[in-house]
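Session log. Operator J.P. requested a structure for one protein chain; no other inputs attached. Running the standard single-chain path with C-alpha cell output.
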Amino acid sequence: MKPLLEIRDLHKSFHIKSKAGTKPATLKAVDGVNLQIFPGETLGLVGESGCGKSTIGKLTMGLLTPDQGQILYQGRNLAGLATSQMRPYRRQLQMIFQDPFSSLNPRMTIGETLAEPLCIHHLCARQERPTRIAELLSQVGLDANAAGRYPHEFSGGQRQRISIARALAVEPELIIADEPVSALDLSVQAQVLNLLRDIQQQHQLSFLFIAHDLAVVEHVSDRVAVMYLGRIVETASAEDIYRSPRHPYTEALLNAIPQPDPEQEKRPAPLKGELPSPLNPPSGCTFHPRCPYASEICHRQAPTLEIAGPDHKAACHHSDQIGSK
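Structure written below.
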C-alpha cells in the first residue's frame, strides 16, 4: 500500500533575534524527520513540549515553509507550493488545533464558521448550507440550534466538537489533530477521543495525532512515532511501543504514565532532568544527558533510526539493553 502522506528528510529552523552583545541563534525545530501515514491509519506523534511536533503539523498544512525536505501527498510534493497551488489540497488536508478557545472566531456564529469552508470550496449551494451544517453538528453530537449561537456560549469540549465539524465540512482525507484534547478535562478528553475514533471509522479518514501523553495516544493510534529535540527516535506499531519500547526516552515516557492499580509492580522512576535547550543541543545523541544507558559513544556519535524488530525502528546505540535497568 502506498502512503497517503510521506515526509522525507524534513528540516525547519527558526532564527532567534540576538540580545545586545550576543550572537544570533538558530533553533532547529525539525531536524531530518521521515514519516509515513497510510490510508485509514492514525499515526500518533508524541514527545515533550518544544520537541517540534506542532511544527511538523504546520509544515504539512503549508502554514510554515520547510528549509529542506519533501512533504509528499499522494506523490505530489507540497513543500514550497504557492498559495494558489496549495488551494486544491486544502480540502484534503485539515487541522484541528489545540486550543478550542482561540481557534474559533468569536464574532462568527457557529453556522457562519461551518459555512465558510463550504463557501470557499464551492461545496454546496447557499440554500443547501443549513441542512449541511445541521448534518455536521449532528455528526459531532450537537443540536442543529447550535448554529445560531456564538463560541463563548459553549464549553471547551463543545468548542472542540465544533472544530472537528469544521474540519469535516470539506470531506478531507487526512486530519492533523494538534493536541486536540490537552486543553480539556479528563472526562471530556475521553468523549472527544471516542468521537474522533468513530468519525475515522465512518469516513475512512487518516489522522496525524499529535500529543505529549502516551496514555492518550494509546487509544487512538495504529502506529506511534516518538520525537525528541526535533528528531524521530522510535517508530513502531502502538502495540509494540507499549509492550516493548526500544528507546530509553520512550521507556521513560511509559514509566511516567500513572498506574491506577497500587498492587501492580512499581515501575522505575520517570525521566529526570529537563529537556535541553534546542538552541544548544547536546553533542552526539541529544538524549544522552538524561539517559541511564548512556556510554562514551553516545556522547560523540548521533544514532540513526535502525531496525529494532518487525516494523520497529529506534535511534539508540543500546536499544538491545532497554528494559534492563
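Operator note: The first strand starts at residue 5 and ends at 16.
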